[in-house]
Queue: 2 jobs
Job 1
Amino acid sequence: MFFKILMWLFAITAYFSTQTNCFEMNMTDYYKMPSLYDFDDYDRCLTEFNNLSTYCFVRADVIPKNDSVSWRVITEISKYNKHHFNHRHLYFGLCVKWCEDALSQFQENGTDELFAGILTNNTKVNVYLNLFSSEATNRDHYNILLNKCLNLRLQKNYGLKAESVIEYCNTNNKTIEEDSWNLSFYIVVYVLICLVILSSSYDFYLKHKCNDKVLTDRDHYKAPQNSLIKKICVTFSVARNWYRLTQEPTGKIGRDLRFLDCFKFFCMFLVVFAHTNWVIFEGPIGNPYEEEQLLHTLSGTLLISGGLITLTFFVISGLLLTINWLALTKVKSDLSLPEYIEAFTKFNIFRYIRLTVPYGFVLLLSGVYFENSGGPMWRHILEREQLSCRKNWWTNLLYVNNYVNNNERCMLQGWYLAADTHSFILSLVLLMLANKWPKVRNILFGVVLAIFYVIPGIVAYVKKYSPIFIATPQAQRDSFIENEEFANFYAPFHMNFGCYFCGVVAALVYDKISSQQLKLAKYKSFQILWYLLIPVGVLWMFSAHPLIQHYYKVPPRFWGSVYAAMQRNSWSFGVAFMIVGMSARLGWILRRFACLPIFRILGRLTYGVLLIHVFMARIVLGTIREPIYFSTGTMFAYIFFNLTASYLASLILALLVELPTSSLLKLLR
């Protein structure tokens, strides 16, 4: 029976494979469009001339021209917006001196007809212009000149014109002046380094002062000190925190759930994969058709459906919250109202401090101005983030950044932390209500699950959104600015709470199985269902295939909303089911693999990687001087480098900030 079901699943997957809409790109027509990126030699422009040299990054929108072949191709290619960039919107890197030389060859009045206007009606571009408000003088000086220059190229090669506006300009003599934000970061780093050196030295001194030959080095660094003062003094000890990072899980719950570290690592790998590609889309690409063609394939369906992976973290968070709450209620189940208030306050304060201290450090780093060691898009990719963080840091620290100032987000990935925080608070309230009135627990949880299960469908129906959030190439290129579906359909807490609460229910089921010592592994039907989750999960990602690849078939509004409700919540239910099964020691070789010691470290570093990986990707992509050639090999090279660099940075963050903070919080309890 089991193998028959597997055969049917593979047959369905094969059907989807054969039904892929293999879009055929007409490359002859494709090359009739202007390139998305046209950059002058950045380094030569800023070094060739002894006097002041200026290089400007310019945004342009092609003006419609119905009798132009190039414009017709732009319209035809760009209409496949799920897979293609908006080829009307162009990036130019222009050397002012070379533009002046090119225009000087015309008669004095001959260049007036080249001017097509300043770009003012593009709201996405205006967000950048507002952030780079200090560039107003450069825009006044060079907007008209550079518009003529780029139109000279467009008209000569494609018979088109474009409106344009300068985002920013770089010169060969600009230096970064250290301000209060930069100085604050340097002071924090200096204090952390001093604390680590002093604490590590003191811990080393205590080890030798003890002079106990029975204790090994590891035993000393694992053993707690015998006084509060000493415990505080060794909080920042690198050796002690390293052993905390690598220590084996303790207790029955720790051993049962140690496979979660593997889950967290592989989910974080896929998150880094997706976000590195997003930053690549923000950068200059010489062959965008490669990315566009990739998204038309079966692999493209998987890439677009990959947003489901993030939901796994919500399930794990809900699970861990509930386990901690159940541990408290087992000590004392009958809590008074003041005790409920005290528990609610402590849970939230300790969580806020534990998450926010490393979060705040990375946020501070994200707002630091660096010398432009990159190329023409360094400021577009990196400084936009710096300016957003300096302006909207408070939305991140208050965890409201998934609702407030959506167009000027600092650390875009922070939407997850905001949604997770709101879900944490509501779940804790529901757990307390269920503990206070256990007779209504099942009704309460059932109603909550039903409400938040259907909310995504209601939002999709009312707002007329696509049943699945599609991160289009242009949306990623614009860093999701002015993307209504991301702001209202993907990032809000109410769209993801159902997934979080699946983790809460999974913890309750695990607790019951564990307390009653039920042996789920002996039930063959349960084993079959559990093993089927793997192929069903892959197939579930392909279920979005008709919505992604069939361009002109708009699903009925009602059934589209039904799918919107089912897609993310059913995935989370499957993840919760898998966690319960694996905690009951199902999985055979899969569970053994997931429990390998290496994942103990990699899993515990995932929070730091979540915080730092986009910054690392921006650093790398910001150094690009000219459009890169995109290929699968290039993509994986960037992903591998970003993953490695992010884990190394996360290790430093854990040893210097995250683990010391956690140690201090334990002392306060």
Note: The two ends are 53 Å apart (CA to CA).
Job 2
Amino acid sequence: MSDQIKFIVDSLNKEPFRKNYNLITFDSLEPMQLLQVLSDVLAEIDPKQLVDLREEMPEQTAKRMLSLLGILKYKPSGNATDMSTFRQGLVVGSKPVIYPVLHWLLQRTHELKKRAYLARFLIKLEVPSEFLQDETVADTNKQYEELMDAFKTLHKEYEQLKASGFSTAEIRKDISAMEEEKDQLIKRVEHLKKRVETAQNYQWMLKIARQLRVEKEREEYLAQQKQEQKNQINEINTEINQLIEKKMMRNEPIEGNLSLYRQQASIISRKKEAKAEELQEAKEKLASLEREASVKRNQTREFDGTEVLKGDEFKRYVSKLRSKSTVFKKKHQIIAELKAEFGLLQRTEELLKQRHENIQQQLQTMEEKKGISGYSYTQEELERVSALKSEVDEMKGRTLDDMSEMVKKLNSLVSEKKSALASVIKELRQLRQKCQELTQECDEKKSQYDSCAAGLESNRSKLEQEVRRLREECLQEESRYHYTNCMIKNLEVQLRRATDEMKAYISSDQQEKRKAIREQYTKNIAEQENLGKKLREKQKVVRESHGPNMKQAKMWRDLEQLMECKKQCFLKQQSQTSIGQVIQEGGEDRLIL
């Protein structure tokens, strides 16, 4: 119930109601005020419901609201007994009856506006059958039903147009854009006309251009028709193939052993027909392109007098360009492949260099640990010496004896180094094996760590979700606690007011009774009723005297106009008299002279 009241208050505080309620002030509304709120909500749905309940009888209010709720198809929960309770509660402004109605209305205001609007035109009047015996009444009823059907059709079209996405603003925008484009095209046409008017054979060229445009439009129209027919042919072929496949899947009896071959032959023939149509289209397109090329060729010859390449020459030129284009594409592709390979090799070289440097550093550190630092350098020196030896042998051509002695010395040096490094190599092999074992163990530990970390992460996320849920529940409980405290305080205040009111009402002291809220409200109601009666009497007097007063005011305005006219005439007459006197005096002066 609290969620329902909260939704009602939030909806009433928004547009178009703007009531500025809270939960306490809304719940403390009197039955008459609550009925007025319901009437305002119904007036938003149907403007005819805009009524001040102080000027309407309770029976009329209940009848008006019940009729509109029936049109809106509101169904209160319960049976016939509850329906009578609902009517009675609506008359007296009962909160358990009005709150659900307000909640239902405010949830679907837009939908109910549409339903109320349509109800004005679609509720059929039930005419008794005895009245329909009259031809005039029957014709009027028939015309009424036809108009109702026409309204249904028009409203459906209107809804479809609304759903289609078109709007008057977009249409106006498109129209303005089209008008601007039209003005630009007119300016361009006028500019082109001015440029072309000086050319020779202007009228003939204009006529040819018009004929060309007409033929192009006709060609586009024919191509569109042909494409539509082709699409229909293709759709029919696909349907036929689907039907054949369905028939074969159902294992229906096939006529003879040659039916499969017949189906294949029919499919092949249809494909052949489609290819023939495509070939014909290509031929027609080629012919049209040749015609356009001839027209363009003639136009260029007329404009600048230069010769255009003919068919065979143009074909040879095009084939030459195509061959050059293919060669260019192949070369370009080869260059791209070489660039990609060069980049790959360059990257490989960088990686190998980096790896070589790392291995050299590891080897140097290992040699230092084993006390044989400089072995790799010695090996490299030997290799360098051997390379130098080969170069020296080639350059100077030493004798075989010198070479044999050199080889013996080198072999003896290599054997000495090998014997010295034999124990180190054995240790190095053991260390490599140990390194592999440690690497494997490290990988196993790392996988265990990853699985454990994933499990802990999932548990952490679950705990965070649980904490978040508990915090939300805590906040909800706190808000519920504060709301309950506010309601308790409100009820205590109301209880205290009711106790004071009961004491004042029971008290034998007249002064205390006069302080009672009931007595004050009764007094205020009586004063307001008296004031309303006086105002209605005053309104009646004003209505009765309105016509004569308006006539009298009009007579006064006419009298003012008449007096103003007389005043103007009098002033005009005086001015004319003074002018005559001046003229007469001037004449006398002339006679004296």
Note: The two ends are 115 Å apart (CA to CA).
